[in-house]
Structures are given as C-alpha cells and as structure tokens.
Amino acid sequence: MKRILYHGSKDRIVKPLFGAGRLNNDYGRGFYCTESEDLAKEWAVANDHDGWANVYSLNDDGLNVLNLNSNKYCLLHWLAVLLENRQFETEYGLPLEAKAYLTTRFAVPYKEADAIIGYRADDSYFTFAQDFISGAISYSQLASAMRLGHLGDQYVLKSRKAFGRIRHVESRPALRSEWLERKNARDHAARQEYLSALRHQRVPGDLRIDRIIDEEIGPDDERLR
C-alpha cells in the first residue's frame, strides 16, 4: 500500500536515519509519522521555534506492519507496549501489579515489526493511561478518553527494511504563530472534557484494572472489544 506520511520536526529531514530517536518513545526507537499534515505541523512547533512538516511517500507492501488498532487487538495490547517503553509511575502498589499483568498477558511481538500503527500517547493521552493503571478510571472510560482530541493514528517505522522504503517528497513550513495555538487548544479541550465529564462518570459493572487482574481477564474476553 502506498502511503503519504508526515513527520513534524523543528528541522527539515530529507533522509530519516535508522537507529536514531529516543528509546522511551511510545513504541521504542523509530521514526514517528502521521497521515495528517495538520497534526504534523502542530507537533513541529513549540514556544521557542517554528518547524516543518516533512512529507514522505512509502510503499509498505511486503512489510510486517503491526496495526494495534485492528480487530485482532484491544486497547490493553496498546497499553502493554506503552508500559514497556514510556516512563510510568509504577514503583509500587496497583500500578506495579498492573504493569506486570498487562505486559505479560497482553504482550505483543512489536519488536519484530517493520512498522507499527497505533495511538499516539501525547501528554494528555499519557495521563489517561496512567489514571487507568492506577485504578482511577475504567476500561470504557479509557477507551472514550483515547478518542478525545482526534489525534488519529501514528505510523512508526521500526526496521532497517522500512527505512529503506521511505522517500522524501518535500518539507512544508509550520509557523508557531499559526500552529502552536491549535496544538494547545486541542490538548486543552481534551483535558477539559476528560476532567469535567469522563473522569467522574461511573459505569456500574465496568472493568477497572484491579478487576481485570483479579478475574484474570485476557485478550479474548468480549468485554474488551
């Protein structure tokens, strides 16, 4: 499948480098892209700099593409991968037990993938995930929260093979005077809706992480779909 991908950065990136990037990103080290130009421009800017939406073409036919949002997986598979890579507060208590349970019971062979499709855990989404493993919100609340902000999916290149397929098309400027306000407004709206409504809704019988652990609920449970 031929895709047009965008990578937001403060720099023009003509040739993405395999092996570069931070280890503690959502899915580990890789090249993180989106199929939304607007989102790439939002991610490219910050308080102290403008940026670029770097545009690429990619034909991923023949690549091992792991789509964590496909029907084969549920939200807890995504969370298990996130728990392996991001810095959660899991030193003790329920979060520590949750991390051990999810990374074992919902383990995904993501390190074998050439590319990964899945949610992007920006600061707001990371907070939602932390609240879930701490027992503050239920599974259905987490699922609803992940739709706030309309961030869509990210497409992450992981393997040398995938990096060999990507081709730079152009780099389009992103001005912080235009895109920083949009970025902040999107994040603020997601946080406000979460705090004012979702986080305080209680659904009788809903699944929280302690119940998932106690009942040994696994990936095939229909309640997770």
What would a concise description of this structure say?
By secondary structure, the protein is of the alpha+beta class. It has helices spanning 37-44, 75-85, 93-105, 123-133, 139-145, 160-163, 176-196, 209-214; strands at 2-9, 31-34, 51-59, 65-67, 115-119, 153-157, 167-174. The chain is 36% helix and 19% strand.
Polypeptide structure, described:
By secondary structure, the protein is an alpha+beta fold. It has one domain (2-224). The protein is 36% helix and 19% strand. It has a four-stranded mixed sheet. It has a three-stranded antiparallel sheet with strand order 1-3-7. It is globular, with a radius of gyration of 18 Å. The model has no long low-confidence stretch (mean pLDDT 92).
Descriptive keywords:
225 residues, alpha+beta, 3-stranded antiparallel sheet, 7 strands, globular
The helix fraction, in percent, is 25-40%
Tell me the total number of β-strands. Answer: 7
Strand neighbour order, sheet with most strands = 2-6-5-4
How many helices does DSSP assign? 8
**Domains counted in the coordinates: how many?**
1
- Listing every helix as H and every strand as E from the N terminus to the C terminus, the arrangement reads EEHEEHHEHHEHEHH
Q: Structural class of the helices, strands and pairings?
A: alpha+beta
Radius of gyration: 18 Å
Major sheet: size, sense and barrel closure? 4 strands, mixed
Instruction: Name the average pLDDT.
Output: 92
Termini Cα gap: 27 Å
Indicate the proportion of strand residues: 15-25%
| Overall outline | globular
Uncertain segments: none
